[in-house]
Protein 1
Amino acid sequence: AQTVTQSQPEMSVQEAETVTLSCTYDTSESDYYLFWYKQPPSRQMILVIRQEAYKQQNATENRFSVNFQKAAKSFSLKISDSQLGDAAMYFCASRTSGNTPLVFGKGTRLSVIA
Amino acid sequence: GAVVSQHPSWVICKSGTSVKIECRSLDFQATTMFWYRQFPKQSLMLMATSNEGSKATYEQGVEKDKFLINHASLTLSTLTVTSAHPEDSSFYICSARTREGLGEQYFGPGTRLTVT
């Protein structure tokens, strides 16, 4: 079974600064995918970034990047130049290949201070 | 991008009644839909996986007779909460997976259910 652990219930960052959200996971599968989702107050889940486990290169999407450490089973999210609109709950998630559901961590609430 | 809609967005019902929540993939065909439940300030908890034309697969601890899931077409899945009780009050989120490629999973905006 897969598990996803987010050890930071809450984080805060100054506007324009950089913040890193931590995530570790556990799986016995060799083929899997990792995701970061954002859930703003509207509660709409928004995909921030995804990483295929077979890819060594860390994924990046504009101000968002990940540090994927496969051996350590770590998948952290770095948000650069933080903006007020980045304030939200962030969920780390994983799934194996095939038609399997996403498994979510407990989330990290990010506050952005103006 | 792919859009998933849910209806209603908010529903209040009396204890003992049933309520149906619809989940539609608007611009893609979804062979698989997932239903999640989210309590305040908590993560998403998977309730069931629904494949088109097949019976849903429920997670351990989820009462299949209470939470009826139907996935009759490639664009529609429904969740019916039967004989609702106040403890069923929650935020219900559906998610649909595209058939192609990575099988991206898109989320609906959620339905807030309040049982009085």
Note: The mean pLDDT of chain B is 92.
Protein 2
Amino acid sequence: KNEVEQSPQNLTAQEGEFITINCSYSVGISALHWLQQHPGGGIVSLFMLSSGKKKHGRLIATINIQEKHSSLHITASHPRDSAVYICAVRFDGPNTGNQFYFGTGTSLTVIP
Amino acid sequence: EAEVAQSPRYKITEKSQAVAFWCDPISGHATLYWYRQILGQGPELLVQFQDESVVDDSQLPKDRFSAERLKGVDSTLKIQPAELGDSAMYLCASSLALIGYNEQFFGPGTRLTVL
């Protein structure tokens, strides 16, 4: 079964803290997508990766293909980082189509 | 910067009424997706188009939902009749192509409330 699990489900941090959000999946993937969704509902793409590590500003995404695990890190967190962070994967293999399967999201609140 | 456009942003309707949502993908994007997101959950794919053709509509409740992308550009998702359980955020996304390492770009969504 193709599954995507995120942890934690909810996270509250003080401004300036280093934050880690985790994503695990059940079978091989061809791509993993980290997305940010603000309370208004719109979704913004943060990273798309299939191996290694990517960095953009204060955000870092890593993926370990062997362990079927990815992490999203936020350094020096700020209240404007408060949002839901969603992991989505495109699974390898037949009968998976080319669609992305989404985790349920991690709700982050950064307190000033 | 090119964006995926959706309208309306918000829709309130009574059950048994018909509703329609519109999506205009980023210019040149061949693949278009419609997702439904229930509060507290991740998006779930309803239908996926490659140009004007449906690639995957296995999760689309076809007794009440329909989707079309007649000219392979913009798309319409319709619900008739709407039910209380259809209250959700309806998201449209597009990508350059169906296969390969193609990032999805999302629109702002349409929040539907069925009373």
Note: The interface with chain B takes residues 4, 30-31, 33, 35, 40-45, 48, 50, 86, 88, 97-100, 102-105 of chain A (CB under 8 Å).
